[in-house]
Amino acid sequence: MLFLPFEIIVLKYLPVNDVLYSLSRMASEFIIYSLLLYVIATKLNSRTPFSKSPIHTPLLLFIFYSLSLILINAAPVVDSLINMRAILRYLALFYVIINIDIEYRTVVKLTKALIGIGLLQSFIAIYHHFFGINDFWMPRENVLEIAGKVSNFKILGKGSIRSGREIGVGIGTMGDSLTLSMFLVVCSALIIPFLYKTFNTNIKSRFYIALSLAIILLAILYTYSRGSFLITLLMFPISWLLVNRIKKSALLISVTILIVIPAFLFVDEIGSDSDEAYINPVMEYVSPIENVTSIFTKSYQERTFEYSRGFMISAIGGELFRSLTLIGYGPAMNFALEKAIEQNLTFVDYKNINVINDVYWIAFIIYYGIIGLALFLFILYKLLKVSLYVIRYSDLLYHRTLALSFILILVTAIPYTFIIRTFVFRQYSLYFWALAALTALEWYRLQQKSKKELAVKTLIK
Q1: How far apart are the first and last CA of the chain?
Q2: DSSP 8-state code for residue 76
Q3: Cα 326 to Cα 117, 138, 322, 364, 367, distances in angstroms
Q4: How do residues 263-273 score in pLDDT, each as one tens digit?
Q5: CA 166 to centroid of chain Cα atoms
Q6: Is 370 exposed, middle or buried (0-12, 13-18, 19+ CB in 10 A)?
Q7: How far is residue 383's CA from residue 54's CA, in Å, rounded to a whole number?
Q8: Are 414 and 402 in contact (CB under 8 A)?
Q9: Closest residue by Cα to residue 394 from 357, 443, 354
Q10: pLDDT tens per residue, range 88-133
Q11: Alpha-carbon distance 113 to 197, whole Å?
Q12: Could you give the 3-state DSSP secondary structure of residue 326?
């Protein structure tokens, strides 16, 4: 967890050929799978039961259903398994964590370390914005093909409208601004709980926490990821609603309706009347603030509803729901998308077929159908219930803060996944499932504690 933010820059300088370098990027996954096998073998050898998983049943249903889609659609097996792995690979880490004893002080150190790494990455990103990215920070080009595809860094691309990154962008040590922004979103979620008196009674400490969060927010701006910045802002009202009582929450909702929404309508009205053309920040420098506010301009709105995510949601998404796509075409990406085009469920040219993944929930329905989407969302719902339980009943501060942090990540993942493939990118999914596991581990401890207390009360009676 602590190595991943530095993986790209560390592996870049390994004295190995390109193929070994590409394989070394997958080493962390192999380590996790090895740990899972070790945990299973240890549990079986000692005849100790596995820890209860709150998502065990829906997860098995989702996996069985996904494998069934391969048979039903006669989809390519290897491609299907590779794409299933993309969203499920860190579930192995989830089951490793919930089945080992992790001391409370380890949880505390891990939380502080991740926040510290987030600050370090933020300072590097801010440096990149003002002084540029030299060869030392640039990622190494990847040449390894898996199933006929090469996974490379967008910042290295040239000559295509979908290649390269924005002028003035910051990438930290992570090789790409998008992956950095997702990691900083996770770090923001880790910090936000400490802003509240419920989790931090030290006023001086809260000041430094707020300052750290401001630095990370600034760095997210310098990644030029509009979605990541807006998602981070969305975490503030959500956390406020979770921490405070109903009366105060009702007050906040009223203020939001009376002030914030009219403000957005005002900005939108200005944007609608503006004749200023949208400037692509990849081609010409745009300030981070202008990059965010550009989404309210008329030219940007026309562009997104004609070519980009707005089109995917309004045209393709609507068609998918109207056609009642209950069963998907299978996890094999190109196979499923081509099937959807053949069935006239999408209006995307074959040359631009991968653009559908920009709105991942839409692509998810094509792959797994509405049934698959419902099963996956049910897994998230079970994790939400577990987190709420930990916040309410845990007596350990950092477990309660991690539970709130995970809820912020989980809830915002719904809109976030409309604009970024959150569950596919390692720099997001690893921390998503790791925090889910740490929260589930505390939930399991509380369940065991509750059973013991109930047993004692029964004996006394």
Answers
A1: 47
A2: -
A3: 43, 43, 11, 12, 11
A4: 444 444 444 44
A5: 21
A6: middle
A7: 7
A8: no
A9: 443
A10: 889 999 999 999 989 999 999 999 999 999 999 999 999 999 999 9
A11: 22
A12: coil
What is the reported pLDDT for 266? 43
What's the whole-number average pLDDT of the chain? 82
pLDDT at 303 exceeding the cut of 80: no
Q: Residue 51 corresponds to which amino acid?
A: S
CA atoms within 13 A on the CB side of 457: 6
**According to the 3-state scheme, what is the secondary structure of 116-159?**
HHHHHHHHHHHHHHHHCCCCCCCCCCCCCEECCEECCCHHHCCC
Listed in sequence order, the residues at least 6 apart from 339 whose beta carbon sits closer than 8 Å to its beta carbon are 73, 329
Determine contact, residues 405/114, Cβ cutoff 8 Å.
Answer: no
Tokens coding 419:
């604009």
Its pTM surpasses 0.90: no
Helix residue ranges per DSSP H, 312-359: 318-322, 333-342
3-state DSSP assignment of residue 48: coil
Query: Quick one: what percent of the chain has pLDDT higher than 90?
Result: 41
**DSSP secondary structure letter of residue 279:** P
Structural domain boundaries of the chain?
A: 4-460
Give me the residue label for tokens 């192999």: 30
C-alpha 321, offset from chain centre: 25
How much is the pLDDT for 322? 62
The values of phi and psi at residue 18, to 5°, are -65, -35
